[in-house]
Design brief:
With about 250 residues, the protein is of the alpha/beta class. The chain has nine helices and eight strands. The protein starts with a helix and ends with a strand. The structure holds S-adenosylmethionine (SAM). The site of S-adenosylmethionine (SAM) has 20 residues, from helix 3.
Length: about 250
């Protein structure tokens, strides 16, 4: 199994593939100020196995949601979960790269994306997806964000290497404005979204993951990288989190 397949195998059984939480999805949705009963059209981009997609379907009983991700394995699980939750008829999955979405212009009331826009870059994503929103439509995206003005060298160097676009919320707001959005809300994800909802479940599954792959060197390398990422978070969590940006298409 190659590294990519190993990563999918480790993450697919988690309810989330990145930091987040049901209560935070609900709070971000409230900040969108949409009528929850309205028959809105929503795109959830980089949806993974659909934690946010299912949350949105539950919170907006008349919404129709296109759940897009380039990993078919994740979308298959999302479809199973949607059937179990009784919302499958309102969710359409789309296996597609976020850089090549086949959407028509101005078709969505809401574009949602949790922990995924970084894959094409925050500014590039904002620019590419804006045309899919109706005028006045709302974008809600979570993005890795510095919480403090200065940071220890270790974490500054790590994130600058991993994701050079990391910045403070004030700078991200300026990017939103530059790309034709008006910010209407913001929250940061609290610690439990990282530890309880994302990192601890991965850690709990590492022994089983390693034995399933006969402790291959590739599987050991992936497990070590996860543990290092978690240790960095635990040491420096005061300095970064995901910011959730809610903005209206101007
Ligand atoms: N939104 C989900 C959540 O919060 O649980 C998943 C977040 S996970 C950190 C990022 C997701 O983006 C993964 O499901 C991954 O398959 C997807 N992804 C990564 N690069 C992508 C791309 N270029 N196009 C579409 N999806 C992509």
């Amino acid at each position: 199994m190659d590294d990519f397949s190993l990563l999918i195998d480790l993450h697919r059984t988690n309810s989330r593939q990145g930091p987040g939480g049901d209560a935070e999805t609900e709070l971000a949705l409230r900040l969108c100020r949409l009528d929850p009963q309205a028959p809105v059209k929503v795109a959830d981009i980089g949806c993974g196995t659909g934690a946010s997609t299912l949350g949105l379907a539950r919170l907006m009983p008349n919404a129709r949601i296109v759940a897009a991700d380039f990993l078919k394995d994740f979308l298959d699980l999302l479809e199973d979960n949607a059937s179990k939750a009784g919302v499958a008829e309102r969710i359409e999955t789309l296996a597609c790269a976020m850089e090549e979405l086949p959407f028509e212009e101005e078709q969505f009331d809401l574009i949602w994306s949790e922990g995924a826009i970084y894959n094409m870059g925050f500014e590039a994503g904002l620019k590419a997806w804006r045309r899919f929103l109706k005028p006045g439509g709302v974008l809600a995206v979570s993005e890795i964000t510095w919480l403090t003005g200065t940071r220890p060298d270790e974490i500054e160097a790590h994130w600058t290497r991993e994701y050079p676009e990391i910045d403070m919320a004030s700078a991200k707001m300026r990017v939103l404005e530059r790309q034709g959005y008006s910010p209407i809300g913001y929250l940061t994800l609290p610690e439990h979204c990282w530890l309880d909802n994302y990192y601890r479940p991965i850690q709990d599954r590492l022994p089983e993951f390693l034995s399933r792959h006969n402790h291959s060197s590739d599987a050991e390398a992936i497990a070590n990288a996860e543990q290092q990422e978690i240790a960095l978070y635990e040491k420096h969590k005061a300095h970064y989190s995901y910011g959730f940006y809610i903005a209206q298409r101007v």
